[in-house]
Amino acid sequence: MYSCPTHLQTFIRAVPVCHQTTTLSEVWSIFCQEKCDRIVVISPQDHPLGVVYLCRLIGSVF
User: Fold this and answer.
1) Domain 14-61 is in which class?
2) How far apart, in whole angstroms, are the C-alpha atoms of residue 62 and residue 59?
3) A single GO molecular function, which one (predicted)?
4) Where are the domains of the chain?
């Protein structure tokens, strides 16, 4: 097995989040404000539930 001296933390990037009750309008605002291409959807307990991708949202809404 290959041993890499780089730690996982090197690759971790912050990603915007929203709750599963967030409206599409609010999600669109997050995409625009954060200039991102994905948002993690979290539960009321702040557990990740899934990911909303900008390209899929645009394809479904517009």
Assistant:
1) alpha beta
2) 6
3) kinase activity
4) 14-61
